[in-house]
Amino acid sequence: MCLALGLWVSGVYAQVPGRGRGVTPQQKKPAQVNGTKPGGLYPVDPNNIPRRGIMQQDQYTKLSYGFPSKPRDKWAAGIKTGINFFHGDVLNKTQWNVGAELSKAVGHAMSLRSIFVVGRLGGQNKEQNTVLASSIDNLMGYNGVTVWNFQTTYYYLSLQAVLNLNNISFYQEEPKLRILAFIGPAFMNYTVRSNMLDAGNQVYDYSGGINGVNQDDTYETIMDKDSSKNSSVRPVPILTVGFGISYRLTKRFEVGLEYTFHNEMLFKNDLWDGRRFQETVNVLSTDYDGFSSVQATALYNFGKGVDPLTWMNPLEIEYEQVLEMKKKLKELLVDTDNDGVADPFDKETDTPEGAKVSPDGVTLDSDKDGNPDYLDPEPYSQFNTAVDTTTGITPVNEQGVPLYIVDFIDQKLKDCCEKKIIYQEGNGLKEIMDATKKPDEKKEKLWGIVQQPTTSSVQSMGLWALPTIHFDLNRDEIKPEMFDELLYIATVLRNNPQLVLSVNGHTDIRFTDTYNEGLGLRRAKTAREHLIKNYGLDPNRLQINSFGERKNLIPTAKTEIEHYMNRRVEFYVGVPK
Length: 577
Description:
Blueprint (H helix, E strand, L loop, with lengths): L1 H12 L40 H8 L13 E13 L7 E11 L4 E15 L4 E2 L5 H5 L4 E2 L2 E16 L12 E18 L26 E2 L11 E15 L4 E12 L25 E13 L13 H18 L69 H14 L1 E8 L2 E5 L12 E8 L2 H6 L4 E6 L12 H12 L6 E6 L6 H23 L6 E7 L11 H7 L1 E6 L4
Parallel strand pairs: 16-17
Antiparallel strand pairs: 1-2, 1-11, 2-3, 3-6, 4-5, 6-7, 7-8, 7-9, 9-10, 10-11, 12-13, 12-14, 15-18, 16-18
Helix pairs in contact: 7-8
């Protein structure tokens, strides 16, 4: 199952043209291939792209296919050595092993390796064993008891699938330590010998046990002898399975430690120790032979290509792409002058602090008078404010009215009006058309000779409007935020007593026409009374009218803000046409 899982995982990372979506063998080979992903990601030298992957890498670079080509990577070769522990009918006597390996990654999660190992197994019982009539012990001259021992020399060649259990790391670019699991078949040849004769070619006397018996270290007796070959060399298929760790010292060198268990895979000959029968009865032993190895390894990565894929984190591609996107996003959001427009889209990156800007970052001058909005006391005026370039202040008269407004009013009156004498009589105003006549100063208070609009001139001034105030739905109370607009209107009227205003109330389209006519009139009346009560303006200078919903600014209003714009009171110099 582990091997199947490894092959599946490797397949995910080892897409090749003709075997994945979006890549067809019929496509032509591109003239030139960029070996890097757009934005500099997944840097792979084009020389490290195998011929079969050139098409795929080209498509990946052009964003027409979602997977990069599997690059050409290095091989790994090394040596290993360690100790063996036997498991079987005879107690273990630790022995040695040495070997070599050659491996190649087939993906980020799996590699294949070939291993050749030479070694020894050994065993020595501590208690007496019964000599069976048909056993080799009886043939060698042992009577009654013996003590089993053996030494097996072996070599095997194995092909293993090595699974990389921790290469997919979320917290580091490239792992320094790998955790491995491996499995694979092997073919092993072995010879088993036993130490049955002493230096004088006599059997040992184990009648008193093993203590006191001076055994030599010569294993001269071949166990389970094959008469045709005069040896017990037997080729058998075995299974190797294990786990280990590997630490990367440099880009080329790595060292590791592995544990491997070996067992006969198909045919349970049970002869690795030369014993397959139980010692008390002539039946086969159930304690099947096997052995374990603990080995230190040293590997060197060689050849052309990138580092072995098993050392490359497959998440690196995605992480670097996310990082690149974050960097680009950060660059897009840089706003040097803090005007709310990012530098890549800002046509004016040194906007003064506090200045309002257009969508492309240019300081606003809404009325195109040469004075930016943040310095212009009337940023939406149709007049030039004539700001003093030295002080940055708009000139005003003694009453605080900007001179450009005074000049505008004077020009309007000069163009459209005639001279009259305005004086007060009782609670009203009187006028004398002939400026050479004067009222009786004992009875009336003279206001002076002023410019007073005639009926015809008033009609021509109907489009000259002062600021507008707005109302909440179905309300006629003045909102506090509108008080500044009314103060401005009152200031203009108090400093220009020759002006009269038409105060026109409007509503939105909700409610009936009759109701809205009355609501518009109430709004106009409320505004008029506010000017009279708070600023002492003459009621005769303020004429109220209601247009209900007949003259909406936005006839097709649907949203609340559009309705709000329609609920208003407008102030016109003169009377409406």
